[in-house]
Structure formats: structure tokens, C-alpha cells
Specification:
With 105 residues, this protein is an alpha+beta fold. It has helices at residues 18-28, 64-86, and strands at residues 8-12, 31-35, 39-43, 49-53, 56-60, 88-94, 97-102. It has a domain at 8-76: TATA-Binding Protein. A five-stranded antiparallel sheet has the order 1-5-4-3-2, covered by helices on one side. Strand 3 (39-43) and strand 4 form a beta hairpin. Helix 1 (18-28) crosses helix 2 (64-86).
């Protein structure tokens, strides 16, 4: 019987754009290393490792909250990129709620 066990959690990440994901991870302070065409190794802010492979993220069970943080950061990065692309103005109404306005209106 092993004296050390590590429980892990795997969840779908549903990320369409890898570059946007990398920008979001950098904003969170998560360092990344590319391993092959489909895999990323993540160094979380607490020092633990996680990985993303084929659209799924694998983390230790005590880091499960990081999955939600990554999903929120990814969504926020998409909004930031689109507002920049179209020249819109982004205002945060509440935590994680934004009002997007066209310039000049």
C-alpha cells in the first residue's frame, strides 16, 4: 500500500483560442511551458503543477479553484481583446460583469 497518494481532478476547459488562453494565464501569474502541439504545463502561483492536454485540464484536488479562475480569466481576456479590436469602451459594472459601449455614444 503506497504511503503517498495524490488525487487529481480532470475537467473540460473548452478553450477555442490557445493564444488568448496564454494571455489569460499570464494575467493570472501562471507560468506556462509548451510540451508538444497540444499540451501545456502550468506552474501555478502556489508552486504546484497542472497540465492542459487536448482541451482538458488536470490539477491536484486542492487546486480545483484554479480551474474556475482560468475560465473566468479566459472569458475576460476575450472581452478585452474584442473591445480593443473594435475600439469599444469596457467598464466593469460589478465583479465579472461589464458594460461595453461603442466610442462616441
Amino acid at each position: 500500500m503506497p504511503c503517498f497518494q495524490r488525487r487529481t481532478i480532470t475537467q473540460d476547459l473548452n478553450v477555442a483560442n490557445r493564444e488568448v488562453l496564454l494571455e489569460a494565464l499570464a494575467r493570472l501569474g501562471i507560468r506556462t511551458r509548451t510540451i508538444g502541439a497540444q499540451e501545456l504545463e502550468l506552474r501555478l502561483t502556489n508552486g504546484n503543477l497542472a497540465s492542459i492536454y487536448a482541451g482538458k485540464i488536470l490539477v491536484q484536488d486542492d487546486d480545483i479553484g484554479v480551474i474556475n479562475q482560468i475560465k473566468v480569466a479566459y472569458s475576460r481576456q476575450i472581452v478585452a481583446n474584442l473591445t480593443k479590436k473594435f475600439g469599444w469602451v469596457e467598464n466593469e459594472a460589478k465583479a465579472n460583469e461589464f458594460v461595453i459601449q461603442k466610442r462616441g455614444f
